[in-house]
């Protein structure tokens, strides 16, 4: 990280932390001194994250659990275990997401709709449902949710994905108002094209993703996950103490340039 944040002595939840933006953010929090409880899918990826944090930051406590965020029971148990392990959770990053099938809406079926909305939207609802009471009882905290550039604009062939990410912003805005006087800040990030498995899966591979999105990006490049991680740490830090209920776009200028021009 270039910007330095101090999370020493704080405990952080990262949900959806094994790959991409989530993994980069977990590593950034570890570098900043935070203890981590990470949820994700993939035991091997979880082990590799623990090993990487251990090598880079041997003093950091990190735990990992496989969690399907579509299951309220699984999400509840994850939070209970994390609270028992660390006593207090100061920051939560709700990042679990899937791209789903990319196709015109009339070619999608209910299973496509259910997968995207249950992971991307219901998963964040469950996360905040079990984070907010804990933070209310312990004097406050900060929550960051992952939306998307596609949460503030439409994009052909990704209608359900867009709907799920618009919903994340609605949850974020409304929940932030509910706890604004309780020392809890809730914000969202709205990343544009970032070189992650989600992007490559959405567009059918790394080269296809580049070919599709690069023409619409004024900065002429796709973001690295570490760049998005720095925004998460800022929003979770005391430096953002007067920011709540916002969806912060981080997209290399694509939104203001009209990034949907390349898809018919």
From TrEMBL:
Q: Which terms are listed as keywords in the entry?
A: Oxidoreductase
The record ties this protein, via InterPro entries, to: NAD(P)-bd_dom_sf, Sc_DH/Rdtase_CS, SDR_fam
EC identifiers of the protein:
1.1.1.47
Q: Could you tell me the superkingdom of the organism this chain comes from?
A: Bacteria
Q: What class of enzyme is it?
A: oxidoreductase
Pfam families named among the record's database cross-references = adh_short_C2
Residue ranges spanning the membrane: these are none
Which SUPFAM superfamilies does this entry report, sorted A to Z?
NAD(P)-binding Rossmann-fold domains
Mention one GO molecular function. glucose 1-dehydrogenase [NAD(P)+] activity
Similarity remark: Belongs to the short-chain dehydrogenases/reductases (SDR) family.
Protein name as annotated: Glucose 1-dehydrogenase
Organism listed in the record: Mesorhizobium ciceri
């Amino acid at each position: 990280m270039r910007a330095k944040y101090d999370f020493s002595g704080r405990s952080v939840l990262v949900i959806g932390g094994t790959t991409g933006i989530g993994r980069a953010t977990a590593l950034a929090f570890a570098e900043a001194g935070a203890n981590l409880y990470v949820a994700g899918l993939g035991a091997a990826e979880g082990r590799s994250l623990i090993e990487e944090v251990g090598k880079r930051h041997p003093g950091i406590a990190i735990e990992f659990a496989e969690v399907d965020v579509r299951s309220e029971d699984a999400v509840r148990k994850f939070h209970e275990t994390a609270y028992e392990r660390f006593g207090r959770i100061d920051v939560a990053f709700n990042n679990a997401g899937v791209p789903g099938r990319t196709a015109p809406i009339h070619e999608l079926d209910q299973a496509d709709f259910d997968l995207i909305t249950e992971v991307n939207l219901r998963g964040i609802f469950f996360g905040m449902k079990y984070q907010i009471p804990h933070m209310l009882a312990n004097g406050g905290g900060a929550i960051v949710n992952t939306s998307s550039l596609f949460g503030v604009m439409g994009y052909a062939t990704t209608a359900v994905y867009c709907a799920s990410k618009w919903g994340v912003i609605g949850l974020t805005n409304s929940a932030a108002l509910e706890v604004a006087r309780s020392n809890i800040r809730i914000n969202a990030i709205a990343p544009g094209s970032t070189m992650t498995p989600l992007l490559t899966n959405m567009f059918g591979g790394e080269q296809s993703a580049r070919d599709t999105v690069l023409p619409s990006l004024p900065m002429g490049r796709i973001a690295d996950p570490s760049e998005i991680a720095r925004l998460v740490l800022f929003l979770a830090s005391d430096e953002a103490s007067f920011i709540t209920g916002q969806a912060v776009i981080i997209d290399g200028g694509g939104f203001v340039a009209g990034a949907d021009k390349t898809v018919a």
